[in-house]
Design a protein that fits this description.
The protein has about 80 residues and is mainly alpha-helical. Helices cover about 85% and strands about 0% of the residues. The protein has 3 helices and no strands. Helix 1 runs antiparallel to helix 2. The longest helix is centred in the middle third of the chain and has 29 residues.
């Protein structure tokens, strides 16, 4: 599954960028700093859950060809 690593890297970059924005806005005394921090904490939980859900849906919709051949052999 060669798509797992790029998907994980995109998720990491996304989470780090949100935390960097939250830290910068906190140091600049931006009025939305608290909202950015809440968004970062929320994304820390939601992004990995969404990535896991996407993987599960992909696994259900597109099973391994080797496993389907083994299942056919078992039925005979």
């Amino acid at each position: 599954m060669k798509w797992k690593r790029p998907l994980a890297m995109i998720g990491i970059i996304f989470l780090l960028s949100i935390y960097i924005i939250a830290i910068i806005s906190a140091f600049s005394h931006h009025p939305e700093a608290k909202n950015w921090l809440m968004a970062a904490i929320f994304s820390t939980v939601i992004v990995p859950v969404l990535i896991y859900a996407i993987q599960l849906v992909y696994r259900v919709l597109k099973p391994d060809p080797g496993k389907t051949q083994e299942a056919k052999k078992d039925q005979k």
